[in-house]
Amino acid sequence: FFNDTATTEIYTEQIVGSVRCVQETAYEDSIDFDKITEEDEKIATESQVIHFGQTPSQILLKPHPSKSCLEEDFKQRLANDNNRQLQIIRRQTKKHSRTSLEEADSKLNFFRLSSKALIHIENLAEQQILGITKDGNLRVYKYQATQMKSSNQKEPLECSIKKESFVTYTQIKDEPLEIVDRSFDFLMPAIVFLNQGKILVCGNYWNGQIYLIHTETSKKMDQYSGHLGTVTCIIKDSREQSIISGSKYGDVIIWSISPSLQLQKRIFYLDHDGPVLSLNFNREARIFCSSSTDGKINIYHSVTGNFMRSFYHPKRHSINQAVITSSPVVGVVFYSEEDQVIYSYSINGFLIEQIQEKSRIIGQPIVIKNQYHLDTLIYGTENGQVIIRDLPLLNVVNISQIDYQPMVLSIFCLLYTSPSPRDRQKSRMPSSA
Predict the structure, then answer these.
(1) C-alpha torsion 354→358→364→370, nearest 10
(2) pTM as predicted
């Protein structure tokens, strides 16, 4: 395209006689199929035309607008007023209040936790609970039902330490220095257990690798690379057939777990513009989601790995926690520490409910089934509360206050039998650490 008609007329004659640079069969009326007698040649030519497509005979129906010069732009877009007084606008520096600075300085993260903090717990077979502390103290708890002495008794189970050992996941053996990435502000470390707690899969290392550590010997079994940066979160499916990990640079990887407990990279995603803050898997709906500081939640099909859709925070805040729900409706529930609001959306993008949360930081939420086989949301707060809400309306079902008001870091659900002879029905009970 040229700026004026005269230039266009000069170059048109040269263009018409120039060598064609597009496949010959792509030009209009270049082939007469009636003159092709052989059937195979006609089919081949037609397939070639379908493959390369057809060039349009005309692109524009009116003359192309000319490129405007700088002087004409100034004449059209600027207006002068000689009577106006010159105004000087000074840049104002944003002042942070002392309260906001104190809150930022006092924000709880992994490195400020007590060395005895129980950062992760999960259920084992035969009435056992597996837990690990910040300093690597690995404990196996044995629990049993408590004889209810009064109606005000809160603890339905009694726990005692059955086995205790140490595993060093913050300092990997055979590594000369501590490789935990301290530049990333995280609360919960990227760790999961495999094979009944015998193998610890962990991340949060600046080299972007995932380490497999044998919990009995505390020795490194293997290490896997594939992420662009520090692994920020790891989850596993209930059958331990695959794990999903996210990194500091927004990439997500699905790893398949072989029978010999080796990881094989299956699918690599790069759909976030910021660090991945949480991952959640829903077996019933066969989907998983990832949330990030870019204010976006991506949802994928867990079987095919196909991308399904994205959700965005209404104010584009960082999404710290996100979970998938499957009943009574399939949807997503997420929370941001910036506005401290819990949002509940249907999978079609309809906002069902939103509620203001009093706590600034909440632990990793879980979704379980209640006695009516409907989803229930359970999460802990920094004030030592365990809150149970029904889904998708987020109505409060129960709030339990833990003594001394510690930060609730990890929650899982176990199945126990009531000791009362009148009530032997099985009930679901959340356990927190």
Answers:
(1) -60
(2) 0.70
One-letter identity of residue 105: D
Task: Please list, in sequence order, all residues whose beta carbon lies within 8 angstroms of the beta carbon of residue 270, skipping any fewer than 6 positions away.
Answer: 228, 250, 251, 252
Q: Cβ atoms within 10 A of the Cβ of 380, count?
A: 27
pLDDT in tens, 295-344: 999 999 988 999 999 999 999 999 999 999 998 889 999 999 999 999 99
Q: Give, rounded to a whole angstrom, the gap between the first and last alpha carbons of the chain.
A: 69
Give the CA-trace dihedral at 46, 51, 55, 60, to 10 degrees: 130
Rounded CA separation 333/252 (Å): 20
357-374 residue pLDDT tens: 988 888 889 999 888 889
Pair 250, 239: CB distance under 8 Å: no
Residue 139, both tokens:
């404990």
On average, the pLDDT of the chain sits at 81
8 Å CB contact between 186 and 109:
yes
Helix (H, G, I), strand (E, B) or coil at 98: helix
Residue stretches of the chain with pLDDT short of 70 = 1-22, 67-106, 147-155, 173-176, 415-433
| Separation in Å, CA 178 to CA 55, 135, 173 | 61, 14, 10
52 membership: H or E segment, kind and range? helix 39-52
Quick one: tokens of 234? 């790891």
- What values do phi and psi take at 210, rounded to 5? -110, 130
